[in-house]
Design a protein that fits this description.
The complex is a heterodimer of chains A (about 1000) and B (about 90). Chain A has about 1000 residues and is of the alpha+beta class. Chain A has five domains: about 100 residues, Roll (Ubiquitin-like (UB roll)), CATH 3.10.20.440; about 180 residues, FAD/NAD(P)-binding domain (3-Layer(bba) Sandwich), CATH 3.50.50; about 120 residues, FAD/NAD(P)-binding domain (3-Layer(bba) Sandwich), CATH 3.50.50.60; about 220 residues, 2-Layer Sandwich (Gyrase A, domain 2), CATH 3.30.1360; about 100 residues, Elongation Factor Tu (Ef-tu), domain 3. Chain A contains 22 helices and 52 strands. In chain A, the strands form 13 sheets. In chain A, strands 8, 9, 12, 13, 14, 15 and 28 form a seven-stranded mixed sheet that branches. Chain B has about 90 residues and is mainly beta. Chain B has one helix and six strands; from the N terminus they run E-E-E-H-E-E-E. Classes of the chains: A alpha+beta (about 1000), B mainly beta (about 90). At the A-B interface, helix 19 of A face helix 1 of B. Bound molecules: zinc ion (ZN). Zinc ion binds next to loops of chain B.
């Protein structure tokens, strides 16, 4: 039997003992316990070390607001869960948890002993310590902070669990299954509409689970609960989701719910996902998210054994655990009395209740007297003692007349009243108003179809909650007896005299981030007056609990310091998630190879078998190069380039975007869309084109082939296919709806095999029918339709390498067959597959740009030296007007040039800065940067491209590339390095 | 995730089927001087409240249309076909 366990009562299964381990020591708990209740039953309060100061910390709550009792749970390889709230962790046989952020042990922690951290961590330390001298930050502050501050450690192994997700739709979603949520679900579901009721806890019932003496409609609270849940279960239109947290409220009534499926099980079922994300779209949302009790701020309020009053009552009534033998309470609110009474009735010694108020409800005083509890009204706590567990409190009258009295205890309850949990309401973008009566913000203006009910709406009377939750439902009056009304209280920032008593240690506001009251005072003195600024400067409410217990006290203290009404302070913004949500839940199945789509070209399998190394190009996977045995990447690329230029290279270019533009106005449409003149392009000819946005900057390029007067085959870059198509649709639909044009994406219908090299015509000639391959009849930049291997083809004569080139377009389904036959027939020419890398090298040798690599969305055609692509006589085209904006005409705009290092073996670094004459300056002016750089095997020297201010007028000049090892001298040259006359291309 | 009523499909569909294409009813000025052109290129209302904007039903019918959306609540007040004038808003 546990030392602190009651003999009877609670909802634990006393016939089902469970063995578990905490910090290596074995304990016994019961089915129905949480880790927190089981530890408390064993007399263990001290479970953690605090974030900054390594102070001993206990269990301060019984729910998700827990800021102190965070532990690491170990479930075998890859299953280490840091920062798990012991108060929410369902106990199971064999549970293994440890304290975190302490070394060498929880009990004897070096961080506390050396007090390394102390002076470093005052408010704003992040900002102050980021200041110069830089060496201080790197050598002193950062190592100390890294070593000292923190919570649990991130897991280092891949998560072995699976996670799943589903969409759900309902008429009414009820978040929170306390009395308000249950009665709301009962009322809402009786007419057959679809209702989902979720609650983050294992069991439905909320606070009713902690108040068994209440009588509802003549039934004991727990019987009423059982009956009500049975009714809900019996209705097919109701879905009940326990262990499911509503963590995010998004637009149009979509909520994210995280359901935990296995964390409470001793044995993990094989194949069962650990968590399930429900994306729920609800017609109406009912927020029954309850309220959170407020801690009080006083010196030494963080010692193990000090906890929220309602938590102590929950441990007693729900789990059968007494949180101490000699329990005191300190309060500014009636709520603490009920907890103190329950503990006294259960046999705990309760010597006193310390109440800051001078006037206390007589009924409470009478009840206290009957239980032999002394009520010290108008009193306060100035100090607490006890290192690893509270031992005594020092009590003084607020007037300060009598001497301080020391009262021994082993637990101290505190209550500053209740704060409605308005997190989801705020996420729904609803507006709050300050309610003086309860000293908290409550929902006021709703933006989405949603209501808040019960304590979440500031309604704390069970009778009113049960009867007014859904007034439109016309339910019968539910009678409530023995309710424990929370009553009223005084909204205070910190206990009186606390400021005078500051030498007695920290009065903690944010227990998880170790923020004390004086940090907030310091922030205000240093000029931070907005609550959002104070939050960030002090980090109050910025820990993983998002300030569930600290925000309201922080606001009160700031208001005091600023001498402003707290109602005027506002609240910091609540953002999803309501409680920490695993990445696994958010990612679901989208991980590993399912993280994103992989588009594969028709020859992907073949390339894979051939030993290709792949690289991603957008969503596509493309062969990067095809290394032979023992070849390095650069050796492979050099071989592929040389073989192509010497005979034949073959490459899969199917990823190119392709759009068929058809209709009587197709030529006019393309004439307006691209910079080039398109109206007079003869049938059978191709043109290299540039696409601009309205701002005049290049965003794509491609080749347009005219198949007939009214039919064009347009290619785009691989990455630009979707946006070019969307942009074409945009202009066709909204700017030029009068044009008769039809657009069809054909990227996936036509595969493309690019053949380059002097022997290509010889290779294909035997297999091509209905096309005259004669070089004068089928010149460079032409298209012909016919067949290859009896398969229909759109045969382009184009080149992206500078060699004689053809792009064989065939239906995608036939591409692999054509590829294999070309490989077979090409054997006699030493046909060589090449990948994207060799393609990039060869196009650079020839001076061809890659849009998005050599240009970055801020270049006009002129900047790229491509003025020739502009149809100057055209009345208009997209981007034309922008080309004469004053900024576009400046002479020192960055312009596209070739670069050659003086040392031909030096491959310059892509992205490196280019500077002009240095003349001993420390920071010479940057005049450009390198966009592409390669070692050209066919040329035998390195080549590069760059953008240089006024570069086109500086051909022949020397500029400099400062690199860590040395500064390289390079010459600005024409970007065409290979066959400038184009003899090979036109052969 | 938003639900968007495509005026061509006449169906409410999930946001993942759409892309937003910026402010609606931007008139491309003819014979613009530099100042007018700069305004057209770079200046947008950035409205807090009812915003008229263009949407593209890219994974649906492929049509561009206009919408009036409240940027505070993300509520779509209405959607309408491209080319139609700015409509009257319901209850305003
Ligand atoms: Zn549509």
């Amino acid at each position: 039997m546990n030392e602190f366990r009651t003999n009877i009562g609670g909802r634990i299964a006393r016939d089902k003992p469970l063995q578990f381990s905490f910090n290596g020591q074995s304990y016994i708990g019961y089915e129905g316990d949480t880790l927190a209740s089981a530890l408390l039953a064993n007399g263990v309060h001290f479970v953690a070390r605090s974030y900054k100061y390594h102070r001993p910390r206990g269990i301060m709550s019984s729910g998700n607001e827990e800021a102190s009792a965070l532990v690491n749970v170990t479930r075998g390889k890859g299953r280490d869960d840091a920062n798990t709230r012991a108060t929410n962790l369902h106990l199971y046989e064999g549970l293994n948890a440890q304290s975190q952020h302490c070394w060498p042990s929880l009990d004897w922690d070096i961080g506390e002993v050396t007090r390394l951290a102390g002076p470093v961590f005052a408010a704003g330390f992040y900002y102050k310590t980021f200041m110069w001298p830089k060496s201080f930050w790197e050598k002193i502050y950062e190592p100390i902070i890294r070593k000292s501050a923190g919570l649990g450690s991130a897991p280092t192994l891949p998560d072995p669990d699976t996670y799943t997700a589903r969409y759900a739709h309902c008429d009414i979603l009820v978040v929170g299954a306390g009395p308000a949520g249950i009665v709301a679900a009962l009322n809402a579901s009786k007419d057959g509409v679809r209702v989902i009721l979720c609650d983050e806890k294992d069991e439905f019932g909320g606070d009713l689970l902690s108040t068994p003496k209440v009588i509802i409609g003549g039934l004991d609270a727990w019987d009423w609960l059982e009956k009500s849940i049975a009714v809900l279960k019996s209705r097919p239109n109701v879905t009940l989701l326990p262990r499911t947290t509503g963590f995010g409220y998004y637009e149009q009534n979509m909520l994210g719910l995280a359901e935990r499926l296995t964390d409470h099980l001793a044995d993990l079922p094989v194949g069962m996902p650990r968590e399930r994300l429900h994306k729920v779209r609800a017609k109406k949302v009912i927020l029954a998210t309850g309220a959170i009790e407020r801690p009080l701020v006083f010196p030494g309020n963080d010692r193990p054994g000090i906890m929220l009053a309602s938590a102590a009552r929950t441990y007693l009534n729900r789990y059968g655990v007494k949180v101490g033998q000699r329990v005191l309470a300190v309060t500014s609110h009636d709520a603490a009395y009920q907890s103190a009474f329950d503990l006294a009735e259960a046999g705990c010694e309760v010597p006193a209740i310390i109440d800051v108020r001078a006037h206390i409800d007589q009924a409470l005083l009478d009840l206290a007297k009957a239980l032999n509890i002394e009520v010290l009204s108008a009193h306060t706590i100035v100090k607490t003692s006890g290192h690893k567990r509270v031992k005594s409190v020092h009590v003084a009258s607020i007037e300060g007349k009598a001497n301080t009295r020391v009262i021994p205890c082993d637990a101290l309850l505190m209550s500053g009243g209740f704060t409605p949990s308005v997190h989801l309401f705020s996420q729904s973008r609803g507006k709050l108003k300050w309610d003086e009566k309860i000293g908290a913000a409550v929902p006021d203006v709703y933006v989405q179809n949603c209501i808040s009910v019960g304590a979440a709406n500031g309604e704390f009377s069970l009778h009113d909650v049960l009867n007014h939750t859904a007034p439109d439902q016309n339910v019968l009056e539910i009678d409530v007896q023995n309710d424990c009304p929370l009553g009223s209280g005084q909204n205070i920032s910190q206990l009186p005299l606390a400021q005078k008593a500051k030498k007695h240690g920290g009065a903690f506001v944010d227990f998880q981030h170790d923020v004390v009251a004086k940090d907030i005072g310091l922030a205000v003195r240093e000029g931070f007056h907005s609550i959002e600024h104070i939050k960030r400067y002090t980090t109050t409410g910025m820990a993983t609990d998002q300030g569930k217990t600290s925000n309201i006290n922080g606001v009160n203290i700031a208001a005091d310091a600023l001498n402003r009404p707290v109602a005027d302070m506002g609240l910091t913004t609540f953002r999803p998630p309501y409680t920490p949500t695993t990445f696994g839940t958010l990612a679901g199945h989208s991980r590993g190879k399912f993280f994103d789509i992989t588009r594969k070209s028709p020859t992907d399998d073949w390339a894979s078998d051939y030993g290709a190394v792949f690289e991603p190009v957008g969503l596509w996977r493309r062969a990067s190069y095809f290394p032979r045995a023992n070849e390095t990447k650069h050796q492979a690329i050099a071989r592929e380039c040389k073989a192509t230029r010497a005979s034949i290279g073959i490459s899969d270019a199917s990823t190119l975007g392709k759009i068929e533009v058809v209709g009587p106005d197709a030529a006019e449409f393309l004439n307006r869309f691209y910079t080039n003149p398109m109206l007079k392009l003869p049938v059978g000819r191709c043109r290299y084109v540039l696409a601009l946005k309205e701002d005049g900057f290049i965003y794509d390029d491609g080749v347009i082939a005219r198949l007939s007067e009214t039919r064009f085959h347009v290619t785009t870059t691989t990455g630009g296919a979707a946006r070019v198509f969307a942009n074409m649709q945009d202009y066709l639909q909204t700017e030029w709806p009068e044009l008769k044009v039809w657009l069809t994406s054909i990227s996936e219908q036509w595969a493309v095999i690019a053949l380059n090299g002097p022997n290509v015509r010889n290779l294909i000639a035997p297999f091509v029918k209905d096309i005259d391959l004669d070089k004068d009849n089928f010149p460079h930049m032409s298209i012909r339709e016919g067949t290859i291997f009896d398969i229909p083809t759109r045969l382009f004569r184009v080149s992206f390498t500078g060699e004689l080139g053809y792009e064989v377009n065939i239906p995608a389904a036939n591409a692999l067959e054509v590829w294999k036959r070309l490989m077979e027939a090409g054997e006699q020419y030493d046909i060589t597959p090449y990948g994207v890398e060799a393609l990039h090298y060869m196009r650079a040798e020839k001076g061809y740009i890659i849009v998005g690599k050599d240009s970055d969305g801020t270049q006009t055609p002129e900047d790229m030296g491509m003025e020739w692509a502009i149809g100057k006589k055209k009345p208009d085209f997209i981007g034309k007007r922008s080309l004469t904006r004053p900024d576009m005409l400046l002479p020192d705009r960055p312009q596209f040039v070739g670069l050659m290092a003086h040392d031909p073996q030096v491959v310059l670094e892509e992205g490196a800065q280019i500077v002009g004459e240095q003349k001993g300056q420390t920071f010479p002016k940057m005049i450009g940067h390198i966009t592409s750089s390669y070692m050209s095997a066919p040329l035998g020297h390195s080549i590069a491209f760059g953008m240089v201010a006024g570069g086109l007028g500086r051909i022949g000049d020397d500029v400099f590339i400062p690199m860590p090892d040395m500064t390289h001298r390079v010459k600005i040259v024409d970007p065409v390095f290979y066959d400038p006359e184009g003899k090979r291309l036109n052969d | 995730m938003l639900l968007i009523d495509c005026p061509y499909c006449e169906q409410e569909r999930a946001e993942i089927e759409f892309t937003c294409s910026g402010e609606a009813h931007m008139q491309k000025p003819q014979n613009a001087d530099d100042a007018q052109w700069e305004k057209f290129l770079f200046l947008r209302a950035n409205t807090k409240g009812v915003h008229y904007e263009r949407w593209y039903h890219v994974h649906g019918c492929g049509r561009y249309f206009n919408a009036a959306r409240d940027t505070i609540s993300d509520k779509f007040l209405l959607t309408y076909k491209a080319g139609l004038p700015k409509p009257e808003l319901p209850n305003e």
